[in-house]
Amino acid sequence: MVRDSIGQGQEISPTVAVGKNGVTDQVIEEIVRQISKKKTIKVKLHGESKILRSEIARELANRSGTRLVELRGFTVILTRKIKK
Q1: Nearest Cα residue to 70 out of 27, 14, 26, 21
Q2: What digits encode the pLDDT tens for the residues 42-69?
Q3: pTM check: above 0.70
Q4: What is the CATH number of the domain that holds 62?
């Protein structure tokens, strides 16, 4: 499952960007909107330190109700959570 999501993430382009203002309500709303239409999305982070990038990736997943699949460099791959 995770391997499939990573594979899908490598095939798509980033569709959301987190800029100098960080994780805003607008960024979260856009992630929620896109994840309702697609299974996996890619988010591009701009100019953050490695530690901060991992914190931002976790915050994106937590606030948007998605699952963090991978953080690679400045790119975050998020997917829908599996419903139980």
Answers
A1: 14
A2: 999 997 777 799 999 999 999 999 999 9
A3: yes
A4: 3.30.110.60
